[in-house]
Design the sequence.
């Protein structure tokens, strides 16, 4: 086997979850998904498709009607985007991997902003790239910020690709439109592609005109070296469906079609029908999801802030409370102890980058906010031991 | 974008299909799928799962119960294979890509036996490998055979991976158990991995004890450098579901789990439930599929053989009639003319390798064999023009 693959780190999140496997008494907040099923109207669209017998191969780039619907949805949020810039993928992570395959040769330099979901840094390593990380910095109070000077200094003409996820998993950090403009301008000069993971754009709690976080699509043109990754998972409660999409320059789309053919060939028609239903009901589904998540966030964060030794800021976007626990050691060890001793399942900060050692990630997407209250009580009792 | 990706050839099969797009009068035999929907019992399992709300992330390697069922199914056909050697994937092509990601570094030498489904040769190119093809040779009468000496001479200690698809798409050529043993013995000496695409193993028309074509699993041990790719697509009429699996050495499995996490994370639970139902009903579904395909083959091939200038042998395995048409030029041009002038949709031979220039592939998986008869009539009339 390849050294690059042998050396890939196993997910430390899964390592903690495995430690709690089969224990029904654990309150689990480790994974990035809600405990709520996909809305019935969306599931029904897939059921109808299956009953019609839509079990054949589909277009590599996705059903034309779904590409059109995604283009219309994206255009409504970010200004005109043609369906010729859209490809449907088997999940957001698949979209990211396809983009990295399209852009990164072995030996190429890739810059990533961390802490970040570990998949984003693993993918360029699979392609044999050299990875350079620029770390966000935690501020007093628990919010994380970007040193723009440091990021721009790291991106040079030898940088093939910048990978940035904002709103950020796990920190909740987001880019401003001004920062996106600065990054774009710099990358135009260096000839660097931007891979923007914006799957949390709709889970944004600041007031905005379009109901979502700033996007690189707001500031870039269609010919910019920009690929934006989106997913149905978070905004439509569709994690398990494996359905996402890419927005890219129009000239790239036919090549992406080839990569989809050689990776998965296509996404199931019945899954795409569910995606179509989700978009048709976006105005009913997503605002409810976001309002509920805001309630969750605003339930959890003040309770955490009230605990001794906990430092946490309310995330501007995403679905995580990312907090520092003073006086504790290795995050992974702490997370495992929390499972074993408190029945509380959290993700260790160092799963997302070394700079997040000492931090823990709590996914607050909980159908019943009382679960969050109960979880904090468990943490509080454990801290008091 | 990467040159390796820009240079990937678009599918010539799709190029022909696109030429007939929107024409309902074309009899299409270009793609490798039946025109029959997935059996109702399989679709119902997915519907039930969706109605239960199984819309969450699943294990990277697949549902434990599906891995167990796949291991039992494989063991029944090929002797003991543990579930610790199985990973569930998002289709056979995804399984192939994951295996190539696990095994092939940029610059590595890969040997492939051609003509073959173009995805198999594209995947190592995406990973930056150097590809070397060993061509099967057509014999008088239309059957293709392997020159074993030539293949073994091509595999040296610098060969990282051998890719072989048998029963072969498009030629119907299959490996004998003796040939598999020779290849395995040679690859043990050179330290070369074998990636065996055996998705057509059940579509085999020669009498055998286990009802399938010879498999490398019959001759290799669990620690051999062997990865076998399987799919639900062909044996269970499940092309559009994107569900397959890998059989690999046990030490490889955890690493494959990481690659699945970073490529697609998992396969939808409801899709896996359908796979489980398919395996539970394998003894009802697959023999019917195979018996029907044999009828289709035995309907089509004699009719083709009776045409002037056509050379074709009945495939021992697979679902294709691969035939040479004397006195015609470029396969792609011929296939396009057949669509335009005869309303007949076939795949051009040179889509599968230069050595198959002048040949055409006819997928005989047709619910109604009369469609095949009608198709031959169109070909006959066109040839008489």
Sequence:
């Amino acid at each position: 086997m390849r050294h690059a693959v042998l050396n890939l780190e196993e997910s430390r999140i899964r390592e903690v979850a495995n430690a709690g496997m089969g224990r029904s008494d654990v309150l689990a907040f480790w994974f990035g998904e809600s405990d709520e099923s996909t809305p019935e109207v969306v599931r029904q669209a897939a059921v109808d498709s299956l009953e019609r017998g839509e079990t054949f191969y589909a277009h590599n780039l996705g059903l034309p009607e779904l590409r059109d619907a995604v283009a219309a949805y994206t255009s409504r949020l970010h200004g005109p985007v043609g369906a010729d810039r859209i490809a449907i993928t088997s999940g957001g992570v698949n979209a990211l991997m396809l983009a990295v395959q399209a852009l990164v040769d072995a030996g190429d330099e890739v810059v990533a902003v961390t802490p970040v979901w570990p998949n984003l840094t693993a993918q360029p390593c699979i392609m044999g790239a050299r990875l350079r990380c620029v770390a966000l910095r935690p501020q007093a109070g628990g919010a994380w910020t970007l040193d723009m000077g440091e990021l721009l200094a790291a991106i040079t003409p030898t940088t093939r690709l910048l990978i940035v996820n904002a709103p950020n998993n796990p920190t909740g950090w987001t880019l401003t439109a001004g920062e996106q403009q600065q990054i774009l301008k710099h990358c135009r000069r260096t000839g660097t592609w931007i891979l923007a993971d914006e799957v949390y754009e709709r889970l944004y709690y600041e007031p905005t005109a379009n109901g979502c976080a700033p996007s690189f699509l707001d500031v870039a043109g269609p010919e910019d070296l920009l690929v934006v990754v989106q997913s149905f998972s978070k905004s439509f409660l569709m994690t398990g469906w494996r359905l996402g999409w890419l927005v890219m320059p129009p000239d790239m789309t036919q090549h992406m079609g080839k990569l989809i053919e050689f990776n998965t060939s296509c996404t199931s028609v019945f899954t795409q029908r569910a995606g179509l239903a989700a978009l048709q009901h976006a105005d009913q589904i997503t605002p409810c999801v976001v309002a509920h998540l805001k309630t969750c966030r605003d339930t959890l964060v003040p309770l955490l802030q009230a605990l001794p030794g906990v430092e946490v800021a309310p995330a501007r976007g995403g679905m995580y409370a990312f907090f520092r626990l003073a006086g504790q050691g290795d995050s992974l060890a702490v997370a495992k102890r929390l499972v074993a001793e408190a029945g509380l399942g959290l993700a260790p900060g160092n799963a997302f980058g070394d700079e997040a050692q000492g931090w823990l990630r709590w996914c607050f997407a909980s159908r019943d906010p009382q679960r969050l209250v109960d979880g904090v009580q468990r943490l509080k009792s454990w801290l008091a031991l």
In short: Chain A has two domains: 3-38+284-384, 56-282.
